[in-house]
Amino acid sequence: MADLKYKRILLKLSGEALAGEGGSGINVSEAEVIASRVKEVYDMGVEVALVIGAGNLWRGIQGRERGMDRATSDYMGMLGTVMNALSVMDALERAGVYTRVMSAIEMRAIAEPYIRRRAIRHLEKGRVVIFSAGTGNPYFSTDTAAALRATEVGADIVIKATKVDGVYDSDPKKNAAAKRFETMTHLDFLSRRLTVMDSTAVTLCMENNLPILVLNFWDKTALTNALRGETIGTLVAG
Fold it and tell me: Do residues 83 and 52 touch, judged by C-beta distance below 8 A?
């Protein structure tokens, strides 16, 4: 553990990370890939918590465009995160990693109710904890849930897992000259109106001096190298 830069992390994954080629649903093979990445970190001795979105199962904007009540739409998304959490839990436990799913909405038959001190104890005991059902409240994104849970359990950093190797000043898929930032402040991130992470989440991290690391989760070595202190992705801090 002496060579690790971060001891306790909150890994934020999008729901799309679990989707197959069609971009929707839960692909068991993708869950297994996520589990293998997390296991590498777990085996290094890092305490790992996860928050997973639900974009692969439900996108609230689709319902709202048809006039659906915002709160109802958001609650549907929260339920989707529980399904995703269970799929990753299963993949992790098949890989030999002790895991607990905690839900902000009580559903005791399949997940523990979220209790801050219990979550911390699970992490201390070497269990991966997956936080599901967002914050338990509508109108908040899973990015914000990740920032909130990371702050509550005393994580050293929020790691935003994406398919891009950091934060750019413009879309690198559309602009070959796009510049990647190695570091930037929370305030700079907010002032540039970047969409990599929800502004409420970034503000919460800023107010609690919690750094955010944006990296390419699908690069097989990015996460482990970042935890060893190498310059990977974009660090949002200060």
Answer: no
For each of the domains in the chain, give its residue range(s) and CATH number, in order of start. 8-236 (3.40.1160.10)
Q: What is the DSSP string of 177-217?
A: TPPEESEE-HHHHHHTT--SS-HHHHHHHHHTT--EEEEET
Q: Which amino acid is at 81?
A: T
Residue 1 has pLDDT above 60, yes or no: no
Residue 33's CB is within 10 A of a number of other CB atoms, namely 16
Amino acid 2: pLDDT: 52
pLDDT band at 77 (very low <50, low <70, confident <90, very high): very high
What local confidence, expressed as pLDDT, does residue 65 receive? Answer: 83
Distance of CA 151 to the CA centre of its chain: 13
How far apart are the C-alpha atoms of 1 and 37, rounded to whole Å? 18
Average pLDDT, the chain: 94
- CA distances to 32, 55, 199 from 95, in Å: 8, 25, 35
Averaged pLDDT for residues 192-214: 96
